[in-house]
Design brief:
It is built from 17 helices and two strands. Strands 1-2 form a two-stranded antiparallel sheet. By secondary structure, the protein is mostly helical. The protein has two domains: 212 residues, Rhodopsin 7-helix transmembrane proteins (Rhopdopsin 7-helix transmembrane proteins); 185 residues, Hypothetical protein af1432 (Orthogonal Bundle), CATH 1.10.3210.
Length: 437
């Protein structure tokens, strides 16, 4: 009897732990939580009722209350699988059906109890009746329904583990067979363990699907972010039709220069795959601040006056502000930081004579230093409303001359060392020989 007492206590503790978890940590709906709590509470009550009947302290004067307890237990036990199926979301709004099924079980037990067909209490206590198999049949059908429900519910999830369902079935059989053949009362412990595993299994399905959905949502947000970036870049480019594919070309130059720099051992610790991807994706926003510049200045065919150039220079600082305001709520912090650096600092110079902040040397963000070379090179070799396209050879020479003044000298060296790759990328239309580094 000590063994049976320990088994019952263990069963109660397992179900209590599950009930606490349902109330505090699960991600289920209010309705599902109700059914889970009902399932675990029913297991606790049935286990306690069976212990009261089989605890070994039977007294004939307690035959009636023990009969009542057993009737309630035998009426409730076949419902455990149904309760759990409801918790798993197998059926919806079946409260009335569950109540009716319970009432049918209760009525059958009440009718059978006076005749001892299913169970009875005699001088030696509890004994099974000749029709006890009826109770077992209902019980097995309920558990089979639960297993079918678990398989059915699992199909609705991206992640499922049929092995877990098999193990639950094995545990149930391991608990029920000893009760049926040897009258060893460990059934409710097996049910408690199975219920706990089923709950954990289903909760894990929910959590994995939530994680998958979050990843999917993140991908959707990233796509939306890309569309916003593309839209902003195209909005600026469409205001100055002569710039053509400037955004596309400079983005490709930025990617190439970043990868060549890493390969050549220039800033390798800072130009990892993630950083290069961020710089490449943020590059289209480098001129987004030009939205504040008037068409008269932006499309002026001649040289800008000092006042007009002052207005043009506003686009750098305004670009950083626009990036923060437009992307602040949809972009991750790493991307937002790089995009803001590129938009606001790509006109800063290595010698500190750039704008808008007059940053110098390493003060200029690496992403902006890379963008500066790509932007200037494409501007030199492209035709604009105010100039003809420059031969690539001459453009390379200008960038070489401005190493250490306008541009980061290390990046210029990388750029010139791989000049052939930039020409073959399709930007330079003329058939020119790359300069000697």
């Amino acid at each position: 009897m000590t063994f049976y007492t320990c088994i019952t206590i263990l069963t109660e503790l397992i179900m209590l732990a599950m009930m606490i978890h349902v109330c505090t940590h699960s991600a289920f709906t209010k309705s599902q939580k109700k059914w889970f709590l009902l399932t675990f509470a029913a297991v606790m009550c049935c286990a306690a009722a069976e212990y009261a009947v089989h605890c070994g302290f039977y007294d004939p004067k307690y035959a009636i209350p023990l009969t009542v307890i057993t009737v309630l237990q035998f009426s409730t036990s076949p419902l455990l699988g149904i309760f759990f199926s409801e918790a798993l979301g197998r059926n919806r709004n079946r409260n009335a059906a569950v109540v009716i099924f319970y009432c049918i079980n209760l009525l059958a037990e009440c009718v059978a109890a006076p005749f001892g067909w299913i169970f009875s209490f005699g001088a030696e206590g509890y004994t099974r009746g000749p029709l006890f198999l009826i109770y077992e049949a209902f019980y097995f059908v309920s558990l089979l329904y639960l297993l079918i429900s678990m398989v059915h519910v699992g199909r609705n999830f991206r992640h499922r583990d049929q092995g877990t369902i098999v193990m639950i079935l094995i545990i149930l059989v391991a608990g029920i067979v000893p009760m049926t053949l040897f009258k060893i009362q460990i059934t409710y412990l097996a049910i408690a363990i199975s219920a706990g595993l089923s709950y954990i299994y289903y909760n894990d399905l929910i959590q994995q699907d939530i994680q998958t959905k979050l990843i999917s949502d993140q991908e959707t947000i990233s796509q939306m972010q890309e569309r916003i970036i593309s839209g902003l870049a195209n909005l600026i480019e469409n205001r100055d039709l002569e710039t053509g594919e400037h955004v596309t070309r400079t983005s490709e130059f930025v990617r190439m220069l970043s990868e060549f720099a890493r390969a050549d051992g220039v800033y390798p610790e800072r130009l990892n795959d993630h950083a290069i991807s961020l710089i490449y994706r943020a590059a289209p926003l480098h001129d987004v601040g030009k939205i504040v510049v008037s068409d008269d200045i932006l499309k002026k065919p001649g040289r800008l006056t000092e006042e007009e150039f002052g207005q043009m220079k506003r686009h750098a600082a305004e670009g950083g502000r626009i990036v923060r305001e437009v992307l602040g709520s949809v972009a991750d912090s790493d991307y937002l930081s790089i995009a803001e650096e590129i938009a606001s600092c790509h006109h800063e110079r290595w010698d500190g004579k750039g704008y808008p902040a007059g940053l110098a040397g390493e003060e200029v963000p690496l992403s902006a230093r890379i963008m500066a070379i790509a932007d200037v090179f494409d501007a030199l070799v492209s035709e604009r409303c105010y100039k003809k396209a420059m031969p690539a050879e001459k453009a390379f020479e200008i960038i070489r001359e401005e190493a250490g003044t306008h541009f980061d000298p290390l990046l210029v060296r990388v750029f010139l060392d791989h000049s052939a790759a930039f020409i073959s990328s399709g930007t330079a239309k003329e058939d020119l020989t790359p300069p000697v580094p």
